[in-house]
Design goal:
about 25% strand; 7-stranded mixed β-sheet; single chain
């Protein structure tokens, strides 16, 4: 019984095959493939089976194994998002011999001239966007996306814009790779929304630096889009999201000429909103990491906010060196939540408030226990927000991580605890 030779082929057709693989195809007495692949061999004398109903065709192949020399023609590398995986469920491995061609991903990265040993490769061909959404939210780069007519480059661009990510990508569309009508384009996501593309395409997404200039007049007075901030390259999602920022500002109850602490400021997104909203306020953005301090300073320059002072240090120790606050926002607590709360309570000016954003049950329980011991008034806002994301022709909700906002008003406190 002859082995089944599975031959990968590109858009250049038979001309792209090596001499050895061409000889294997020449010896075939039965060629199996799509209409496009079979058309590359118009003069071949072998019988032909078209892969229309794949299951039916492969069963026919099984019936003719003993009497035919069979070659199955597939695109690119058959074991790379190709027919190879299915063939291994129909035939034992020893009965198959694979002859891969250069894959579409290899060709795409060579055309855009980007190293791809660390690439994230995602197929949305007949699948949903979930894996791609996760990769984008984590700031993966480079990313190769295998598309289909429903999950097209335009649909990917729509998704990218809707996610409102602080990570920015160069958007490449590679069409008809290896063919005479090959086309490689670098587009903005906005441009990709307006274009139509050849059915055979692959999208490549590569990190690009964020524009250093920004039109401040185009920004809303409140609620800066997440994508406008400089963020951590390896953790772009580590930013207080726009919707949560708006609620935090409401809970703080800001007034002119206040001194405000932003503890665990991260990228400084909350500080920037306060600085723009209340120009007469003095905001101290406290962050323990040097990377965070650099981002706070870059964002302050970006939004031309002059009333935010970045301070590198670990709370609560660093807090004793800062002027007493009217308002405190605690976005990051590290390992000493109770120490931070005690320092804030001791230094808070009359009429002051402390607002915390808590993401874990453990920090929530610790904070509530501390509040009860000190018999403080508090209120809780449980925030669960979802954003719409496109799914092909439809739209679904993608949830953000839930956050609990805990607001403490010590100067309104009695022995009674309110919820």
């Amino acid at each position: 019984m002859h082995p089944i030779n599975v031959v990968g082929i590109g858009l250049e057709g038979a001309a792209g095959l090596s001499g050895t693989v061409q000889e294997i195809v020449d010896r075939a007495t039965l060629l199996v493939g799509s209409d496009r692949h079979l058309a590359y061999f118009p003069q071949h004398p072998a019988q032909r089976l078209t892969l229309n109903d794949i299951s039916q065709t492969l069963n026919q192949v099984k019936e003719r194994l003993s009497s035919e020399t069979i070659v199955i023609l597939v695109s690119g590398d058959p074991l790379f998002f190709g027919l190879g995986r299915l063939l291994l469920t129909y035939f034992p491995p020893e009965q198959l011999c694979f002859h891969p061609h250069v894959s579409s991903v290899q060709l795409a990265f060579s055309r855009v001239k980007v190293s791809w040993q660390d690439a994230k490769i995602i197929s949305i061909h007949g699948r949903d966007f979930d894996e791609l959404v996760t990769a984008l939210q984590k700031g993966a780069s480079p990313i190769a996306v295998l598309t289909d007519p429903l999950h097209s480059p335009g649909a990917i661009a729509h998704l990218l814009l809707n996610l409102d990510l602080p990570t920015h990508y160069q958007f490449w569309v590679c069409e008809n790779l290896g063919g005479t009508d090959e086309l490689i384009q670098s587009l903005s996501p906005q441009d990709a929304l307006m274009r139509t593309f050849a059915p055979l395409n692959i999208v490549i997404l590569v990190h690009k630096p964020q524009d250093s200039c920004i039109d401040l007049n185009s920004l809303p007075a409140l609620g800066i889009p997440d994508r406008q901030f400089y963020s951590f390259g390896d953790r772009p999602g580590l930013i207080t999201k726009r919707e949560i920022r708006l609620l935090i500002l409401g809970e703080l109850g800001l007034q002119p000429k206040q001194t405000i602490w932003d503890i665990g400021a991260g990228t400084g997104s909350v500080s920037m909103e306060i600085g723009r909203l209340v120009p007469t306020a003095q905001i101290y953005a406290i962050e323990k990491t040097a990377a965070g301090i650099q981002l706070i300073q870059k964002n302050a320059r970006r939004f031309r906010v002059s009333n935010v002072i970045s301070i590198q240090g670990k709370a609560p120790d660093i807090l004793r060196q800062i002027p007493a606050p009217h308002r405190v926002f605690i976005g990051g607590t590290g390992e000493d939540l109770q120490g931070i709360l005690a320092c804030c309570l001791a230094t808070l000016l009359p009429g002051g408030k402390i607002v915390m954003a808590l993401a874990t049950l453990e920090h929530w329980q610790e904070a509530i226990a501390w509040i009860h011991r000190h018999q403080l008034t508090y209120r809780v806002l449980q925030v669960q927000v979802s954003r719409s994301v496109p799914v092909g022709r439809f739209t679904r909700f993608s949830p953000l991580n839930p956050v609990t906002l805990l607001t403490i008003e010590p100067f309104n406190s009695t022995a009674k605890i309110t919820h």
